[in-house]
Amino acid sequence: MDYSAVIKEIVSELEGKKFGGKTATYIPELATVDENKFGIHLCTLQNEHCSFGDSDEKFSIQSIAKVFGLTMAYPILGEKLWKRVGVEPSGNPFNSLVQLEYEQGVPRNPLINAGALVISDVLISVLKNPKSEFLEFVKRLSGNSSINYNEKVAESEKETGYRNVALASLMKSFGNLDNLVEDVLDFYCYMCSIEMSCQELAQTFLLYANHGKEVQSGEMILTASQSKRLSAIMLTCGFYDQAGEFSFKVGLPGKSGVGGGIAAVFPGHYSITVWSPKLNKAGNSVLGMEVLERLTTKTGVSIF
Ligand code: DON
User: Fold this and answer.
1) Distance CA 79, CA 230 (A)
2) Atom 12 (ligand 1): residue with closest C-alpha?
3) Three-class SS of the chain
4) Angle (nearest 5°) at CA 95 between 58 and 122
5) CA-wise closest residue to 303 among 255, 253, 230, 233
6) Rounded to the nearest 5°, which phi and psi values hold at 266?
7) Cα(227) to centroid(ligand 1), Å
8) Nearest CA to ligand 1 atom 7
């Protein structure tokens, strides 16, 4: 498959068209990013790469980092993890509080904010230096030592993330957080502040296209079963209340972030990342969804 030609064709079709959407402003630091940034990177398990636009520029990966948090926590806790967090799509926005109240502090899945706060709690309970060990883990997964947190973004979210304070406090009241609310929020905000380029993110997501085995080192980070489950969670929960639509239009497991990134995988074949900061109402990149829908339509292949 000539992915490079397909991406070129998609980009030329999109040129000059207006798709709307708005950059996230509820984390003030994210509002400073140029809304016209647009990058794409696809890499295959055969080490073929195609890029477009701002694919080498680092951006705030935000919720995409929840996948890395889960990748670290799952092998540590094993199936016990699912006592603390579910595996069902929420059908609600990523920062919704209502469901958490009537489901007694057990988040629907690990990719909504409440679920990722539980994963953060698990990690800070087992790691000696949670923030530095998590960063080392992402560096190892990506094979790239330049990956870092953006402290400005983390601090900006810590100052204004009132909904996350509410989610964490509610879970603490139900006994589903072992650590202090402020410690969980601190770790969570740093996790979400990681910056990566499309190229770095696509390279890292090859792990999920390769059934849990790190492509360059050959190391099994997840078992094939854990990788299957993690990809299933991305497919059903990775786009919040738009997970159904993403699955319907694109047909790949993936994860979005309010920084405008989307990372997706075609297991056994490739990973792809798109970055465009303008988001739809569900918090997913408008152009990112458009590119990926066109990619699986034009290539005629998806997981279905
Ligand atoms: O907690 C938040 O609101 C952000 N740190 C992450 C949200 C996010 O990326 C949702 N994704 N589309």
Assistant:
1) 12
2) 257
3) CCHHHHHHHHHHHHCCCCCCCECCCCCHHHHHCCCCCCEEEEEECCCCEEEEECCCCCEECHHHHHHHHHHHHHHHHHHHHHHCCCCCCCCCCCCCCHHHHHCCCCCCCCCCHHHHHHHHHHHHHHCCCHHHHHHHHHHHHHCCCCCEECHHHHHHHHHHCHHHHHHHHHHHHCCCCCCCHHHHHHHHHHHHCEEECHHHHHHHHHHHHCCCECCCCCCECCCHHHHHHHHHHHHHHCCHHHHHHHHHHCCCCEEECCCCEEEEEECCCEEEEEECCCECCCCCEHHHHHHHHHHHHHHCCCCC
4) 75
5) 253
6) -110, 95
7) 23
8) 63
Q: Which residues line ligand 1 at a C-beta cut-off of 6 Å?
A: 62-63, 94-95, 113, 157, 164, 192, 256-258, 283-284
Which atom of ligand 1 has the smallest separation from the CA of 157?
5
Distance between Cα 275 and ligand 1 center (Å): 15
Question: What domains does the chain contain, in order, with CATH numbers?
Answer: 3-299 (3.40.710.10)
Q: What is the pTM of this model?
A: 0.98
Integer Cα distance of 202 and 28 in angstroms: 26
Tell me which of 60, 258, 286 to substitute to probe ligand 1's pocket, judged by most ligand atoms within 8 Å of the beta carbon. Answer: 258
Burial class of residue 300, CB neighbours in 10 A (0-12, 13-18, 19+) = exposed
pLDDT digits (tens, 9 = 90+) for 156-184: 999 999 999 999 999 999 999 999 999 99
Q: How far apart are the CA of 278 and the centre of ligand 1, in A?
A: 14
Q: What tens digit of pLDDT does each residue of 238-294 get?
A: 999 999 999 999 999 999 999 999 999 999 999 999 999 999 999 999 999 999 999
Which residue is closest in CA terms to ligand 1's atom 11? 257
Task: Quote the ligand 1 centre to 168 CA distance (angstroms).
Answer: 14
Closest atom of ligand 1 relative to the 95 alpha carbon: 3
